8-oxo-dGTP diphosphatase (Embleya scabrispora), 148 residues
Amino acid sequence: MTGTRIVVGAAILHRGRLLAACRSAPAALAGGWEFPGGKVEPGEDETAALVRECREELGVTVRPVRRLPGAWPLGKGYVLHVWLADLVSGEPRPLQDHSEVRWLAPAAVADLDWLAADRPAVDLVAAVMGEPATGKRVIGDESLPMRR
Ligand SMILES: Nc1nc2c([nH]c(=O)n2[C@H]2C[C@H](O)[C@@H](COP(=O)(O)OP(=O)(O)OP(=O)(O)O)O2)c(=O)[nH]1
C-alpha cells in the first residue's frame, strides 16, 4: 500500500520505570498521555526518527532496543509503531509538544489517560515490565496459595 506513513513512539524504560509524556497539542489530543516520538520523515530509518524525536522533544539520548509487534492505525494514513528504548543520557524534560513527562512504576502504567490508539501498545509494554495493564496481577498456579 502506498501512502502509509509511520509514527514511531518510544517506550523508554529506565530503572524499571516507563516514561510517559502528556501531549499539549493539538487541542483534540491535549491532556492525553503517549509515547514520545513522531512522524518518520521520508527516507528516514525508524530508529533514527526515534532518536531524533526524543532529542527534540525531551532533550535526551535514547537507544532503540526492539520494536513491539503490532502497527496501530492513527487515521489519515498513519500507523503507530512502538519501540522499546533505553535511556542513554539526559534527564527528560517536556521541551516540545508535551506539558509534562512522568516516570511510571509498573503498577502505575494503567492509571494514566493514554491516547486511545496507544492502549494495545501500553498493554504490551506493561507485560514487558511484568505488570498486566489492568493493574491487577495475574496469579499463576505457582503463586496461588496451596489448598489443602
Ligand atoms: N508521538 C506520538 N504520537 C502519537 C501517539 N499516539 C498517537 O495517537 N499519536 C498521534 C498524535 C499525532 O496525531 C501523531 C504524531 O504526530 P506528532 O505531532 O507527534 O509528529 P511530529 O513530532 O513529527 O510533528 P510534526 O512534524 O507533524 O509537527 O500521532 C504516540 O504514542 N506518540
